[in-house]
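Long-time lurker. I teach an intro course on protein structure, and each term I like to show students one example going from raw sequence to a predicted 3D structure in token notation. This year I'd like something fresh instead of my usual example. Would anyone be willing to generate the tokens for the chain below so I can use it in lecture? Attribution to the forum is fine with me.
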Amino acid sequence: MNRIAEQQYGVMSLDQLREAGLTRQMIRHRVRKGRFAPLHRGVYRVGPRLRSKRADQLAAVLACGPQAVLSHRSAAALWELLPSPRMDRSPVSMPVEVSVSRSHRGVAVPGVLAHRVKTLGPKDRTTRKRIPITTPARTLLDLASLAARRPGTTGHDPLPPVTRRDLERAVAKAEREGLVSLACLRDQLSTLPRWPGSVMLREILDIEGGPAFMRSEAEARLLELVRSADLPPPQTNVKVGRYEADILWRSAGLAIEVDGYGFHASRDRFEGDRARDADLAAQGFIVIRVTWRQIRDEPSAVVGRIARALGQAEARRTRRAPQ
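-- Reply from a regular --
Happy to contribute to a lecture. Here you go:
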């Protein structure tokens, strides 16, 4: 029992406890003595272990049956494709999202948002950090179905909605981390033409230059401006030497660095930014810095600066080209 509990963040199901040799009477006795703590019906925290997010996630999966898997936003958070779902100033913890087959006849579990899905085959399942979970590809498909929901149709879903920008960021990070390829996602979409959100996901996969990974709202807004102005597609958050450029046109030798709300908040941050600018300049890149206020209040001026810099780079390449 202790060996299994150690492997499962201190969480065990009733069936696992029985297999370990405990009877119902023995389990009830340990609950009365405080050695077991019921988490859900038929799921217990075993021994004096502290409660953790991983334990809550695994407890939710165990409570929904042996075929259940962590899914949707909870799975995206565990794959580190999106931040963990949370609501600010909410005294109630966010429910864990789990997918179960439609044929599963389990009862509703408090604290668990169960999605009854039509298809959930072996190719859609895996484990991460010892928790049954949907694969990265299936997780992105599930996020697409959430992003495609119409406003006002979320029903009893208390979690923050998934936006198109969230979906693009998740797709870009999954590809960046080597979790899934864009070709693999396209193949899966071709077999699921009526999947909710398939149109949105296909549009993201077909973006010129590929979906972009953005670390901040300011970077995302700037990328939207670049795309709406029909400028050449840039790379985003890409390594250049020792540093990472926010937005980069490598062939044009142009890097854009985005300063957020509090970019002068500390001297260390200020000095670090200047060191990065100097390193990029030493490698032959022109560095343009834009602020959140400029992106928000002067979008045309920001796009104009970038367009002029790209135009000058093209002119330099033309002059250097062999006659």
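Some talking points for your students: The chain has three domains: 1-51, 64-205, 217-320. The longest helix spans residues 299-320.
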